[in-house]
Design brief:
Blueprint lengths: L1 H7 L4 H28 L4 H6 L1 H16 L55 H6 L3 H25 L2 H5 L7 H19 L9 H10 L3 H9 L7 H26 L7 H31 L4
């Protein structure tokens, strides 16, 4: 979209102001759609299956609808049977090897049913029954991958890529477009289960992708002239960012090493913290890297 807008407008101040208004309008529209989806989500069966609050609210709404016309004797109350909440230390086998980390466990998390998906429980109750250190020991390799991928990404993108070329006015726009294209395609590939790599491949790929950086340095120092190679490298940088970064986030929560929904919720929080920490460290170090680039 940015390429279409840039091509259809001039480079004067009024055109730039119009572009800013377009981008602002699009962002506000996306936020509005997100709010609408947030309201609709409790009515979606898939969301209720994996979100205890949605399931709890739906079940009680249905129960009230069935009992709204029933009469109860005075002095009595309807008792709701609460299913006992299992503890992770007394969890059954469930087809997974408990206490093994994500690199060594075997099984398919998509075919498992979390043992704490019981009636009359919320996500908070599920997380309170899970141990943080148990979750960390299971998924730490993927947390490391997540931190490495997103930290390395912001370390060189977009600053170093901008310094690698720039022989025309379209260079910066194309660089950003190539990264976004690669990131989008790689995340789209992850929709297909057969294309998802194992945790070992994700961990290795998270570090091996830095082999792109030496070629990028050659472009920055003009040892390899032109803009074609930076475009290709940026596409690869986006592909590896979405592929290994996205898969690390998936493996954090969808691993058979975790048997409880509460554990998966904590794993999701840890994955987000790892992502944010990687972005923070990468963007902070990027300022020092940019100052060291040749002018």
């Amino acid at each position: 979209m940015s390429m279409i807008i840039k091509a259809s407008m001039a480079d004067d101040f009024e055109s730039v102001q119009t572009q800013a208004r377009i981008y602002f309008g699009v962002s506000m529209g996306l936020q509005l759609i997100s709010c609408i989806l947030l309201v609709v989500m409790p009515r979606i069966p898939f969301a209720r299956e994996y979100t205890a609050e949605f399931r709890y609210t739906h079940e009680h709404r249905v129960e009230r609808a069935h009992t709204s016309n029933d009469e109860f004797p005075v002095g009595t109350a309807e008792e709701t049977e609460v299913s006992p909440l299992p503890d992770e230390h007394t969890a059954p086998f469930s087809g997974a090897e408990h206490n093994k980390d994500v690199l060594h466990v075997e099984g398919d998390a998509d075919r498992m049913k979390d043992i704490d998906q019981v009636d009359n429980i919320t996500s908070t109750g599920q997380m309170l029954n899970a141990q943080i250190m148990t979750v960390f020991k299971c998924i730490w390799p993927m947390l490391l991958s997540c931190f490495t991928v997103f930290g390395a990404t912001l370390l060189v993108f977009p600053g170093v890529f901008f310094a690698a070329g720039g022989s025309n006015d379209w260079y910066a726009t194309i660089i950003v477009a190539m990264f976004n294209l690669g990131d989008f395609l790689s995340r789209f590939f992850l929709l297909f289960k057969r294309l998802r790599p194992s945790p070992r491949v994700v961990l290795a790929g998270s570090f091996l992708r830095v082999l792109i950086v030496p070629l990028l340095v050659l472009c920055v120092r003009k040892i390899i002239p032109g803009d074609v190679l930076p475009y290709i490298l940026c596409l690869l940088w986006g592909l590896t960012n979405g592929y290994f970064g996205g898969m690390a986030m998936i493996h954090c929560t969808r691993t058979p090493a975790l048997l409880m929904a509460g554990q998966r919720s904590i794993a999701g929080i840890m994955a987000n913290l790892s992502l944010l920490l990687g972005l923070f460290v990468g963007s902070s170090l990027a300022m020092a890297v940019i100052k060291g680039l040749p002018q």
